[in-house]
Specification:
Elements: H1 2-15, E1 19-24, E2 34-41, E3 44-47, E4 52-59, E5 63-69, E6 73-80, E7 85-92, E8 95-105
Antiparallel strand pairs: 1-2, 1-8, 2-3, 3-4, 4-5, 5-6, 6-7, 7-8
Length: 107
């Protein structure tokens, strides 16, 4: 019976996903704000709008650092757990772009 109760308490934690919704103050190429939604899936954050998958490289009680690498660019995502802000940097051959903005953890 104790094992069954323990299992029932653990199941909701396994099912719940962490989702960050962030609004960047400006988009470096569009001169306007953008909305980004990052869903945690295991050791990754997935940005479904851009089909990007950020591997969580470092996580502690204050920050999450994740990276995504493709053939043409390298992305670094920083999520601040205390201040609820994001910083995202995209490096391509010959250019570096940066996004910053406020976030909310919705799930």
């Amino acid at each position: 019976m104790k094992k069954l109760l323990l299992l029932l308490f653990l199941i909701p934690n396994l099912v719940m996903a962490e989702t960050w919704v962030c609004v960047s103050s400006t988009h470096p190429l569009k001169d306007q704000g953008t909305l980004s939604k990052y869903e945690r899936q295991g050791n990754y954050f997935v940005h479904k709008s851009f089909f990007a998958k950020y591997k969580i490289d470092i996580e502690n009680e204050k920050k999450i650092y994740a990276t995504s690498v493709s053939d043409t660019s390298y992305w670094v995502l920083s999520l601040d757990k205390e201040k609820k802000i994001q910083q995202k940097i995209n490096m391509t051959s010959g250019a570096v772009y940066e996004w910053r903005g406020d976030c909310e953890v919705v799930e």
